[in-house]
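fyi for ur records
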Amino acid sequence: GTRVRADKAYCSQKHHDALKSRGIKNGIQDKAVKNKPLTQRQLQRNSLIAKVRYVVERTFGSQTRWFGSKVLRYRGNAKAHAWHILQAIAYNLKRLPKLYVDKQIQAQSWE
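which gave:
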């Protein structure tokens, strides 16, 4: 099913209930409250969520730095979607040489 992952700024009963009512799994990090630290299980869960979020956030951060994507310059869902697709293609093309070299190095180390 669908899972929403977010940092602890979005940790609230309101968000939890909204996700549950829509059948969406809760991937929002837990937040400690005054005089109630997080349990070991909650800390482990937060760590797992952070690992996944890091990969996604790193990608969007690179797109923002490389292509200036802080502001969407198009109106309408279709145009906005097309812009994001083009950015994803450009991001992958920009990374392609490094990925190719890394794969070559990895192949040589197996020989």
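Residues 1-70 form one domain. thats all i got for now
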